[in-house]
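Our collaborator T.R. sent over the components below with a one-line note: 'Predict the complex.' Nothing else. No constraints on interfaces, no templates requested, no preferences about which chain binds where. So this is a plain run: every listed entity goes in together, and whatever single assembly comes back becomes the starting point for the next discussion.
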Amino acid sequence: MSVSANPNTAKVSLRAFLAKYSVLIAFAAIVIFFAVASPTFLTPANLFNVLVNNVVMLAIVALGLTIVISSGGIDLSVGVSVDMASMVFVMLLAAGYSGVVGVGGGLGAALIVGILNAILITRLNISPFLATLGVLFIGQSTQQLATSGGQPIYLTSGYASDQFKAIARTALFGVPTPVIVLVILAIAVHVLLHRSVFGRYVQAMGAQPGVAWYSGIRVPRELSMVHVLCALLAGVTGILLSATVKSYVPLSGNAFLLDAIGATFIGTTLSRERKPSVIGTLLGVLLLAIVKNGLLLVGWNFYWQQVGIGVLVFLVLAVSFGLRRATH
Amino acid sequence: MSATILHAEAGASDEARATGKSAGRRFATLVVRLGAIAAFAAIMAYFVVFAPGFTSTFNLINVVEQSAILGVLAYGMTSVIIGGGSDVTEGGIDLSIAANMGLCAAVYATLLSMGYGDFLSVLAAITVGMAVGALNALAVVGLGILPLLATLAVLNVAAGMELTLTQNTVVGASSPLLAFLVSGSFLGISALAWALIVFSATIIAIIHGTAFGLRLYAVGGHPEAARAAGLSVPFYVSFTYVLSGFCAAVASILTVSRLSASTPGSGELLLSVLAAALLGTVFSRRFVPTMGGTLLSVLFIGLLANGFQLLNVSSYWVNGVQGALILLVVAITSFARGSESSR
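Returned assembly:
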């Protein structure tokens, strides 16, 4: 009869199903668990808070890393892009420049980090890991030198800074601006990565760098683009971060690095070939954010939260990777 | 017909070019290796001439002491990279090593402050370190999770457990062992410096002087071939993660002795450990990670920070110059490697 009548095949396909959707299933289970355990978890106010405070900024950084990881590389300097954008943005506003100049300057600073990475990787043939690690060290020094050892810069009330408080606080049709920014960027990156020629080149470089080169893809050019885009996206997070907390705190961007890498790779469990994808990455970010928030609501202290997140991510990965291995 | 001849001619000239090129390549590789060592030497020479007290025995021993913690950790990381291969996203890496050291230090200091003796406390720290390493091994080898991802999750667990244990405070500790490590000395060299020397000698002997070490390189370099040759790839890879955990535990005892306490924030060492382990490849002939290369790069980083201190350069510069030097050295190396691979 039909193949699925074979109980063995059915078992295998069930396993494959579980392996593919383990992150989604875990996500649903976690949401249900916290919804039962904490009455405030599913309230609109709380979900809104999670979205604005825990999801948006991490997600934008993770979108950039999704592009880089798709190309087979890594960017350890995303924190520097976040910080440099934040620093230049806040310094310009503090010096009395208008918001537009501030944003332009901030993105320009992130762009410089991206171009530096691109030159090191494509012109000097340094591996992405080492190149971006070196840039990370240089970026840390630069910030320490620029702020006499790491003094935060605060934005006092003034024309431009008040204007920029607006970025974080205002809403369009009831949706806060940062969320709108995220949605636009996510759609843009999704189209770029999964629906454009550039995206196909990036995927090809990630899957088979040698073949990509032989088939005429201008690898250096596309790779430069990848790193510049990643740095720019991180720069957007830097500006949103400064606009939200109305200050620049040196060396604070690095906190995004490990979470963003984690979210991107959690997202890769969605695809059979373990390719990064925008939807997967967003799901990974949501998973991390929901767990953090949920553990807080059920009364775990900050220290236990980190253990909880580690254990949970570990379990999700173990199930996803373990089941897939069993199906092979 | 003519095509065959053309082809044959092309083949011959290719061969001729290849011989010429391989000599040139060998020369370029040599220049680069010597170049990396020359850059090292030039910077040291500058410090010797201009940094007051740089060459004093006291200062050099001080540098070795300061390098001990980073060195032991970098050995752990190097072993993982040797056994897991050095691919950027899929190769061996242990992101949890610095957090693991923090956890072990917290366990060690807490047990000491609760009145347990050195023996039990050291045993507990080493058990915890190796258990964390075993967890990494289980995740990477047993479950097939990407090392980058598995050790990232374990990093969170270890860092969280350290915070839970110490409540993010400094836990003071004192014991005969710690006192000995700080003030003991033999042949004019302090115990802490001896710790690095002995540990280095042991691990270099194991990894570079035994069949076991050679097999470990085989496993990392070409897992399929290693398996075909009858090696148990899972065993060797697991071993490197457990060794990495052991290194974290040893480093934790050294750090508690240096600071007389376990302090939060040890996770910040991770990037320096990575830099040391990766920079070390420059010092090897085939640009592979080696323990000797790691030791050189650790001492290099230590001497650099020390030289800047003596020259009274702001410590804010140290990270940046370290980063720039890493890039410089690696750029020269990859130039040689590029000419090597584009045959």
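Summary for T.R.: The longest helix of chain A spans residues 7-37.
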